Task: inverse folding
C-alpha cells in the first residue's frame, strides 16, 4: 500500500499504515466471503436445499456491509481501499473456494473451514489492533461476533447430538465436504 498523505488525528502515520494494511486484508476477505457465500447459495442442492439457500442470503448481505464499513474506515485513515476483482485475487492469502455444485452437507462442511480461516484472521487482527487503533479494533470485534454467529449456524448442521463436528480434523474444503456428506 502507498504511504498515507494524512491520517486521522491521534494516530501516528506508521500505525495508521499498519491499520490500513489490516483493514485491506479484511476487505479482501469480506469481498471474497460474500462472493463465496453467494456461490454456495446458487450451487447447493439436496433435500435441505431451501433451508440452506435461505440461511445463506442474510449472511451475504451482512458480509457485504462489512466490506463497505472496512473500505470506509480505510478511506477515513487516509488510505485508498482496493476492491476490484484483480486486487482481491492478488491480495488474498487463501485459495479459491473449491466446491461447485454439491449437496447442502458438502457445502456446509467446506464453509466450516472457510469460516474458521476468516475468524482466525479477524482474531489475529483484534490482538494487533489493541495498541494501534481501538476504533478499528471495535469494528473487527463487532464483525467477528457476527461471523462467529454465522459459523455456529453452519456448524449446527454438522454437529451430532454428542457435540462432535463431522468436519473435525479436516484440513481442506474437499476433505471437509467429504466428511460432512
Result:
Amino acid at each position: 500500500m502507498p504511504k498515507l498523505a494524512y491520517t486521522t488525528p491521534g494516530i501516528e502515520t506508521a500505525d495508521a499504515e499498519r491499520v490500513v494494511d489490516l483493514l485491506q486484508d479484511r476487505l479482501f476477505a469480506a469481498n471474497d466471503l460474500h462472493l463465496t457465500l453467494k456461490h454456495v447459495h446458487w450451487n447447493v442442492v439436496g433435500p435441505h436445499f431451501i433451508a440452506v439457500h435461505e440461511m445463506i442470503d442474510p449472511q451475504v448481505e451482512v458480509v457485504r456491509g462489512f466490506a463497505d464499513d472496512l473500505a470506509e474506515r480505510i478511506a477515513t485513515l487516509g488510505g485508498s481501499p482496493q476492491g476490484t476483482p484483480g486486487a482481491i485475487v492478488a491480495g488474498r492469502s487463501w485459495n479459491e473456494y473449491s466446491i461447485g455444485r454439491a449437496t447442502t452437507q458438502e457445502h456446509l462442511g467446506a464453509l466450516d473451514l472457510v469460516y474458521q480461516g476468516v475468524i482466525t484472521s479477524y482474531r489475529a487482527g483484534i490482538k494487533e489492533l489493541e495498541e494501534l487503533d481501538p476504533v478499528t479494533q471495535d469494528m473487527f470485534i463487532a464483525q467477528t461476533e457476527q461471523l462467529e454467529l454465522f459459523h455456529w449456524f453452519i456448524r449446527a448442521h454438522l454437529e451430532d447430538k454428542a457435540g462432535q463436528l463431522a468436519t473435525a480434523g479436516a484440513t481442506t474444503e474437499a476433505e471437509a465436504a467429504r466428511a460432512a456428506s
Remarks:
- The CA atoms of residues 23 and 70 lie 6 Å apart.
- The radius of gyration is 17 Å.
